[in-house]
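Sample 1 of the test manifest.
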Amino acid sequence: MNPTNIDNLSELKTVLEAGLLAADGPQTLKDLARMFEQELSADMLRRALEELRGDWEGRGVELVQVADGWRFQTRAQMQPYLARLKNERPPRYSRAVLETLAIVAYRQPVTRGDIEDIRGVSVNAQIIKTLEDRGWVETIGHKEVPGRPALLATTKKFLSDLNLRNLAELPPLEDLGNMLAPDTAATPGAADEDPEGGIGAAGSEDPALPASAPAAAGAGGQG
Amino acid sequence: MNPTNIDNLSELKTVLEAGLLAADGPQTLKDLARMFEQELSADMLRRALEELRGDWEGRGVELVQVADGWRFQTRAQMQPYLARLKNERPPRYSRAVLETLAIVAYRQPVTRGDIEDIRGVSVNAQIIKTLEDRGWVETIGHKEVPGRPALLATTKKFLSDLNLRNLAELPPLEDLGNMLAPDTAATPGAADEDPEGGIGAAGSEDPALPASAPAAAGAGGQG
Amino acid sequence: MSEAALDPVQTELPIARVRGEPLAELPADLYIPPDALEVFLETFEGPLDLLLYLIRRHNVDVLDIPMAELTRQYLAYVEAARTSRLELAAEYLLMAAMLIEIKSRMLLPRPPRADAAEPEDPRAELVRRLLEYEQIKLAAQTLDKQPRIGRDFEPAGAWLGAAAQALPEVQLRDLADAWLAILGRARLNKHHRMPRTELSVREHMARILRLLQEGRYLEFQELFPSSAGVAELVVCFLAVLELARESLLRVSQDAPLAPIYVKRHESDEHRQPE
């Protein structure tokens, strides 16, 4: 009896699972087939992988197919835990990114021009790309004005990532307006310890602006 | 609702599983506890880990506890498959390297001179470097004799890489009694040499012997 | 402990007898050509290893080694290596000297010890070293059989998911702060008016634009979620009006009471509703 011969689907899945978990990167069907002495059709392997994927549903790790093959990877929901395990302080978005996001969220659909009008500074394309790459902002059409600028809106993923059912659950503007004492804007913000920091820092083109976030202790990503 | 709070055991297991699979090496209970915002007792974590270990029974991968913590690893039965998946062959160590490793493991801390005494040959610096590069042996101090030779000991990684939790789990040293030629006991000619107390006490006089080899014959030494 | 009693002849029949002397002491290995001898000697980790081989080969009691015989055999190897001009580590020669010394001490009466205990056996130290070495030699073999990472098992792990490149976290608080910052600046600059539209209206505006992607026409009613309550219907209607006001939407009706069609306001209006 050959040790690398496989008799049934469940055995096949066991080996595939071990192989994928032991491998360093994504494995193609061809890579995976190499594990077995007997010839296994790509169909057979694919079926086993699909079943395996199903077996892992609801876990913190999932089997995914990426461009260069199959691999196990942690689910996005595990990220907060994993970040704490790795003891990394989560990076923070620059103020420019956060403000752009806030404008898209509260004023959607908006064009880049609208965002620039509201922020009073030009908006780096990188900022919008950062938000698009994150899957939080998308183009939902174009405004029929010269240049046909893209109309930006927030996505469902944005809502679910922020634990919201709908946009109405965003902190209401009225309240925010009331919270804003007339002179707050001139107060140097406490929450601005890293104006340049974070991933989207490319867009912090307004370093000269007075930080105006009201005290808002410990805003954002705690460690 | 805090995203890194855990409500039940099954959720806890899901996170532990993802954390252990995402981690780079074995994780201690302390490492794992860091993932959660709330305080989780070591007992609670251990219980979850034990359950998780049970969940993985019969799979190609198992959850094990080694010297530096818990980790997932493939079962031995998977190795024929994995060997075909892997491109590189694992290194094979020469007898010189293995004997040097055994001396460091069983007699630590030792100097290079001690190793030479036991093996009866000079020890090539490359041999020790091979073990150091593998992360199995390290210098933990210097002996206060002329030349202040380095004192070598095995690392936690050595134990973990050999699937051990501590030095006491090293395979016990061969009982010296077994090393006698089978017919010796009956040989009248051997009578005037007491096998219990005599010259055969080699090796057993080392109180620091980690694995406490079933205290080889007569620790009486050559007194 | 007579040397005779422990002569290898006891356990191994002599190959031949030369002038009445058994010829068992020269191992067959010695008659192999020099390059083979080199290979043979290379298999030993040193003099202790070679001695152990000789002892174990003849099934001799380590605790009562026949020194004369062992020394003779050992020297035969060393000599064979020397005449073959094989490079032999200095340790082999040192061991040869030690063996000869022990052998000669065995021939002398042992001096009585002060404490009247057994006189020290001249072989004691050699035996101690042999046994210690053999113990380590066996331990090395056992260690080599111990399951080893990368050879007998692999660490199992998963890729850190896409999200695992430590993406910045954003809390609602951050958004609120960002918005407040904007508002604050707007007030400071005075020249900005922040139009206030219900957020839910904005949400419907985005939703309707999505519905109308790719130049699609929809009947007016289709813009309203079927499950919507009165309040939501009103909000949705406001969204349509707001979109029309902002020229993002084109609402058309061919005749009174005919179906109302809605389309995104785009320049390519050649497509007609059915």
